[in-house]
Design goal:
- This is Alpha/beta hydrolase.
- Keywords: Hydrolase.
- There is one protein chain.
- By secondary structure, the protein is mostly helical.
- 43% of the residues lie in helices and 0% in strands.
- The longest helix has 12 residues.
Length: 37
């Protein structure tokens, strides 16, 4: 079971957020992974 799950609303975005808003997705992903060991 996942212990650290996050959800982030992305405005002006449909079902392909990684293609439509890569700037937001990459920023959030890097922030999430910053604490990962």
């Amino acid at each position: 079971m996942a212990r650290d799950v996050r959800g982030v609303p992305i405005t002006q975005c449909g079902h392909l957020c990684q293609e439509e808003r890569p700037d937001v997705v990459n920023r959030e992903l890097l922030d999430f992974l910053a604490d990962w060991n």
